């Protein structure tokens, strides 16, 4: 049985909620990623910030990225999946919430990786991938 840990991109990195949007953009550039999990002071997941969030909710709103905390860009309840979850649970979580990136958490509630659409494309059958795309992108 394929687990979340088998398909995730390991080594994901947090950004603290009080860090600036500018720092988030720099980390995304340096890590070559389009999203970063956001942590609270206890290193617990409190959101995700994406490159799109930075453009739409900061730059387009004329906010100063060097002064704006990433916590201003996080919305809703953060979703995550345990590292030992079955891949079907991963798909169900992403499909139900129409999300494209999913943090993977270990038994100690620490971030161990991220699952993106690209990870799914590399590890799923064409049929499962097709079902995922249809459900996530359906209007």
UniProtKB/TrEMBL annotation:
Annotated PROSITE patterns: CBS (PS51371)
Stated name of the protein: CBS domain-containing protein
Alphabetized PANTHER family for the sequence: CBS DOMAIN-CONTAINING PROTEIN (PTHR43080:SF2), CBS DOMAIN-CONTAINING PROTEIN CBSX3, MITOCHONDRIAL (PTHR43080)
Xref: InterPro entries: CBS_dom, CBS_dom_sf, Diverse_CBS-Domain
Domain CBS: from-to ranges: 8-66, 73-131
Key words, A-Z: CBS domain
Protein species of origin: Streptomyces luomodiensis
TM ranges: none
Pfam assignment, any one: CBS
């Amino acid at each position: 049985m394929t687990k979340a840990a088998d398909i995730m991109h390991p080594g994901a990195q947090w950004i603290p909620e009080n860090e600036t949007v500018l720092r988030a953009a720099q980390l995304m550039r340096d890590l070559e990623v389009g999203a970063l999990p956001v942590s609270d002071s206890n290193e617990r997941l409190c959101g995700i910030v994406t490159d799109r969030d930075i453009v739409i909710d900061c730059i387009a709103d004329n906010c100063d990225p060097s002064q704006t905390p990433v916590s201003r860009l996080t919305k809703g309840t953060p979703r995550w999946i345990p590292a030992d979850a079955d891949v079907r649970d991963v798909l169900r979580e992403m499909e139900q919430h129409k999300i494209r990136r999913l943090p993977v958490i270990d038994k100690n509630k620490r971030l161990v990786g991220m699952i993106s659409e690209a990870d799914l494309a590399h590890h799923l059958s064409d049929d499962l991938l097709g079902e995922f795309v249809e459900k996530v992108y359906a209007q």
